[in-house]
Write a structure and sequence with these properties.
The structure is a homodimer of 493-residue chains.
Chain A (H helix, E strand, L loop, with lengths): L11 H11 L3 E3 L6 E3 L1 H20 L3 E2 L5 E3 H4 L3 H6 L6 E4 L2 E3 L5 E3 L4 E8 L4 H11 L8 E10 L13 E11 L2 H21 L6 E4 L11 E8 L5 E11 L1 H5 L3 E3 L5 E3 L1 E8 L1 H10 L16 E5 L8 H16 L4 E3 L7 H10 L4 E5 L1 H6 L1 E6 L4 E6 H28 L2 E3 L3 H10 L2 E5 L4 H11 L2 E6 L11 E2 L6 E2 L2 E5 L3
Parallel strand pairs in A: 3-9, 17-18, 17-19, 22-23
Antiparallel strand pairs in A: 1-2, 4-8, 5-8, 6-7, 9-10, 10-16, 11-12, 11-24, 12-13, 13-16, 14-15, 19-20, 20-21, 23-27, 24-27, 25-26
């Protein structure tokens, strides 16, 4: 507070960073590229976890916990996985410190591990290694396991929530008797993600399949949900992978099928992370601060009594507390901000910064008139209502604001998907930001050439049944060769 | 299943290990000393977390997330902490792998960290380093933060849940304006732990203070809750530390007090871990398997229809499903085990092994008579009841079993606290197992000598207000010197 924040127009990246810090969501830790998620940010992450965890359990999954450390040799077992993935990782080589005799400590050179251990960047290898012992016959399938965990990828350029060395996520790892079942599972979980993002985060997403070069190392197909940030860049919100029999083969996980024959198991994995926190901030917030969807806001309504000097404010406080009690009774998360060391204007700015969806203020005149001022954060509008109407209005605003945020983000997103027919158009439109919906010849060469020339990547090949009409065949914007359908390009986080 | 389990009488340690594995709670992972918590075990841990997390929030705490890795230099900042604690730790020295050109991977020698990073064995140093930026004045205090996290201590001898290299815990780290407030907080959280252990885990605990040599490195006082296992060994269930100003001093965390003077902050930290899972198993279980308190049992009642061969069992199944629905309506977690590939006897043994508190069975004759067999796991007793009485009975059993487990454990514990007056008695009684309540002269030398001779340690100096009467002054069992009060000795996990 106090200092003004960079605006989105001035410098979007700086605005984002300022906002995360000033709103008390997170900060950088003493370890390079790692973050501290502060209580306010963590409360939002907890709310996300609660909703997702319930959905995972409703869809038949159970939680478990697998180790943090992976023997180095495990990474070599699945060839594509090691080629494409496991490079920038934190490596544990020793297991003891000792005093250096001068008040400091040093690593004990005698405590060197025979085999180095890697802090998990993802847990496919560990899980499939355990699944080998858990799966004997078709009766043990499907195995539907999730874990909430911290993982680590030694990123060189980090940004709070969006790309940090350590981050928090859930990773589902399932095993199935047939390919069809495994594909069904990966698509089902992609849909769970999409519903969560649209229904809870209020972020519209496009579901699609990744091109081969953007696919997870070790997967047969990677499904993705993609969203658009306010600066016109795309962000991958989560992925779900059909692993085929790749990890089952690497870790020799077989089962006796109903016919009594031994077969390799089919797998999936799927994950979403604290990256969603970054998307939540970037999609909804404005130059005044965070804008939080009510479903995730730690405080949904703040009540501010505007007391006059040293007068007796007992009646005012009583009216405010009564309203707070009524709102709590209706299941709304409220806070009464009666800190008398801070002025009302400061408090208004503070709660705007922290994205509290609704602010209620009551002063001396309101008390006389039996009214309260009701302000909504999303539209920064306010109205003065009789006390008898306030609770109903606040309750209605919870869903109104939730819906408004989603619709607003969808209008922006939809207004920023452009169909282009040639490469000049492609480059021109890309500069404006947003998704470019264009024909591509399906080759990795063309994909790489487009990325090289424009920094745009194929975000996904959209799945059917969404508003994005695939629009039939055409010719590739770059090569002019035949294209079966349009795909979605964008510059991305 | 199938193979019989080692009994407690034969080999308690082996019984424990067999039980953890066979009941599907956990298993050893591919990384030495680390465990996989399997879904059944994890569901119990989740239930524990839910109850504790709610209590932490009710007592004003908020959650946050701090990094996994700690710069090595942080450990040197608090002198006692480095002396007494941070030795057996996993050390990260490199941040990249590379292909060895032969399908394998090696650690890239060029990617060596300038300063080694330690996987957190506990997070005092990291948190206090962050708190420095968060605390300016008395208005920022108290700071009441908790985190649920994985931590790692490179233990040489490991046992599932009881002592593993990686384990899961919560660690509260709070900052206060006065010493009195910080002491109050540490005792408050010790009481939260004790209530949780007695009320939810059904494990009676003794609250006390640690002797200096058993104290947490860096603490001024360590409070502890101690329980007795069925083999007569004690287990430290959780600790709460009054840190004084030690970490504030080490990390220069000061605040402006109400008088406008700068002062060092006072701290606490407190934690309980997956070790409680081990205690839960060891305190209640028997030679047939787990015995779970209903409050934590993932399945509280299992319903087993005993169908006859190929007959039409529709009526039987309908009656069983109706009962399951009624129990669910009452908030009881039920499972209908209608797997027709397994015989009833096998199922009975399986659910006993997994500690399901209540088993309901219904066969053809029950159907005719309108009855069900109701069996309780804790007493291994059963009764046949009219269907109209079953749901009420099961509901009542939930609290009856919970209470019975606690009372049973308390009787055992109380029967195994012996007062002794001299060292011969001390040694004799110790061999029988349990707590020995004896006079001690208060010196570290005597404490060490007793440990050396008997392997018994001072578990705690019991706090006042518990059933253990301090019993006034006396003379030390070993040295014969004056003793202000009795303390509790035992061999411990």
């Amino acid at each position: 507070m106090g200092q003004s924040m960079t605006t989105r127009g001035e410098d979007y990246a700086q605005w984002y960073n300022d906002l995360v810090l000033k709103s008390g969501m997170a900060e950088y830790a003493a370890v390079r590229g790692c973050m501290v998620i502060k209580p306010y940010g963590y409360a939002i992450w907890e709310a996300m976890k609660d909703v997702l965890d319930r959905r995972f359990k409703e869809t038949g999954h159970v939680n478990a916990a697998f180790p943090l450390l992976i023997p180095k040799s495990f990474f070599s077992k699945e060839a594509a996985h090691v080629e494409g993935f496991a490079k920038e990782c934190a490596v544990v080589t020793h297991y003891r410190l000792k005093n250096d005799g001068q008040g400091g400590i040093v690593v004990d050179p005698e405590a060197k591990l025979e085999e180095e251990l890697i802090i998990r960047p993802t847990s496919e290898t560990l899980m499939w290694n355990a699944y080998k012992g858990w799966i004997q016959s078709y009766r043990d399938l499907p195995l539907l396991i999730n874990q909430w965990a911290n993982v680590m990828r030694w990123e060189m350029r980090t940004r709070l929530f969006l790309r940090t060395a350590e981050f928090y996520w859930q990773e589902g790892h399932t095993a199935h008797a047939t390919a069809a079942e495994a594909v069904e599972e990966s698509v089902k979980m992609l849909n769970v993600y999409a519903e969560f993002m649209e229904g809870t985060l209020a972020i519209p997403v496009i579901k699609g399949v990744k091109s081969e070069s953007e696919r997870f190392a070790g997967a047969v197909d990677t499904y993705t949900v993609e969203a658009l940030m306010q600066d016109g860049k795309a962000l991958q919100m989560g992925t779900s992978h059909f692993l085929g029999q790749n990890f089952a083969r690497a870790f020799d996980v077989t089962f006796l099928n109903k016919e009594g024959e031994r077969d390799l198991v089919w797998g999936t994995s799927w994950g979403v992370s604290t990256r969603m926190m970054g998307a939540l901030i970037m999609v909804h917030s404005d130059d005044e601060g965070l804008v939080l969807p009510p479903k995730l806001a730690p405080i949904q309504a703040v009540l501010i009594p505007i007391a006059k000097g040293k007068e007796d404010n007992a009646d005012l406080m009583a009216a405010v507390e009564a309203m707070a009690a009524e709102l709590r009774r209706r299941g709304i998360r409220v806070k009464v901000d009666d800190d008398d060391t801070k002025r009302p204007g400061w408090k208004f700015a503070e709660h705007e910064l922290r994205g509290v969806p609704v602010r209620l203020a009551m002063g001396g005149r309101d008390l006389e008139n039996g009214t309260m001022e009701v302000a909504r954060r999303d539209e920064r509008s306010k109205e003065t209502l009789p006390l008898t109407q306030v609770a109903d209005r606040v309750e209605a605003l919870m869903s109104e604001i939730q819906t408004n945020l989603f619709e607003r983000a969808r209008r922006y997103r939809d207004g920023n998907i452009q169909r282009v027919e040639n490469f000049d158009q492609f480059q021109e439109v890309l500069e404006l930001g947003g998704f470019v919906y264009a024909h591509w010849d399906g080759t990795a060469e063309t994909e790489a050439a487009i990325k090289e020339k424009t920094k745009a990547t194929i975000r996904c090949i959209p799945m059917d049944g969404q508003e994005l009409d695939a629009d039939g065949a055409g010719v590739c914007v770059l090569s002019g060769k035949p294209s079966a359908r349009r795909v979605l390009f964008a510059r991305a986080y």
